[in-house]
Amino acid sequence: MPVKTYSAIAEIYTHMMRSIDYKEWADYIHQISKEIKKKKISVLELAGGTGAISKILQKKMNIVSTDLSLNMLKQNGDKSFPKVCCDMTCLPFKNKYDFIFSTFDSVNYLNTKEKFIRYLENASRCIDDGGLLAFDVSLENNSKKFEKYLNRRGKVNGITFRQRSLYNPATRIHYNHFELTLANGQKVEEIHKQKIYRFEEYFDFIDKSDFYVHKCYKAFTFKNADAETERAQFILKKKNVC
Ligand SMILES: C[S@@+](CC[C@H](N)C(=O)[O-])C[C@H]1O[C@@H](n2cnc3c(N)ncnc32)[C@H](O)[C@@H]1O
């Protein structure tokens, strides 16, 4: 039975990502945010999933973590910061934040140009004039490299899973197909589709928005990215701010 993305796999997400160094990733995001010269900045995390990054950052920042999947948010038992279930293309916030960020190619789930532009419009409405918008994107070389590694099987918390990963260079869609047998024996499947935009396309989208590209690094570094980069870290600022 097909189910919504990040509904069933929420329970095994932490296990599947166990090799990811979230401490290092959170440190990198923290370094980026330091450009905002305020004592304790207000932060909005988009597509924060199970909150692996916000759990670390909340000690240094006033953070609100959000995600489209309630099941992903529910995995985050840390009650010391607020969590909101919402779509990053339709943000329900009235206040403005100093820093808005997302990690782990979450914006690649915005699989049309219109959705990506709506995301930028929503971020613009919720960010302070002097704020920063930071997100990383997975580029084609990342898809090509990881396609074969992400074919895997396992069992955790009584759930058996099989992941198959396929990148289609013609449509530039990266598919991840998950088949799960839940603890009660029910079989479910999730099909994840991520759009692998060309590096230059991001600059075109951003040109049409209220933002400009302040920095674009090879992720986890402070070296400039290019079209051959596997994961690029974008840092945007608002245009027309004195
Ligand atoms: C690869 S996971 C990354 C989660 C987390 N940022 C991390 O680093 O582990 C992608 C996340 O994006 C969320 N997501 C996908 N589309 C979204 C949207 N339109 N608005 C908000 N969250 C979204 C999913 O629910 C999922 O939790």
Distance between the termini: 54 Å
Rg for CA atoms: 18 Å
Largest sheet: 7 strands, mixed
**Element-level helix/strand string:** HHEHEHEEHEHEEEEHEE
Overall domain count: 2
The coarse silhouette is: globular
CATH names the topology of the largest domain as Rossmann fold
Task: Let me know the average pLDDT.
Answer: 96
Q: What molecules are bound to this protein?
A: S-adenosylmethionine
Percent of residues in beta strands: 25-35%
Strand order of the largest sheet: 3-2-1-4-5-11-10
Give a quick summary of the entry.
This protein has helices at residues 10-16, 22-33, 52-57, 70-74, 113-126, 140-146, 199-207; strands at residues 42-45, 62-67, 83-85, 97-101, 127-138, 152-156, 159-168, 173-181, 187-195, 211-218, 231-238. It is α/β, with parallel strands linked by helices. The mean pLDDT is 96.
Give your account of this protein's structure.
This protein has 2 domains: 18-138 and 198-238, Vaccinia Virus protein VP39 (Rossmann fold, 3-Layer(aba) Sandwich), CATH 3.40.50; 142-195, N-terminal domain of TfIIb (Single Sheet), CATH 2.20.25. Helices cover 25% and strands 33% of the residues. It contains 7 helices and 11 strands. The strands form 2 sheets. A 7-stranded mixed β-sheet has the order 3-2-1-4-5-11-10, with helices on both faces. A 4-stranded antiparallel β-sheet has the order 6-7-8-9. The longest helix is centred in the middle third of the chain and has 14 residues, at 113-126. It is globular, with a radius of gyration of 18 Å. The structure holds S-adenosylmethionine (SAM). The site of S-adenosylmethionine has 19 residues, from helix 3.
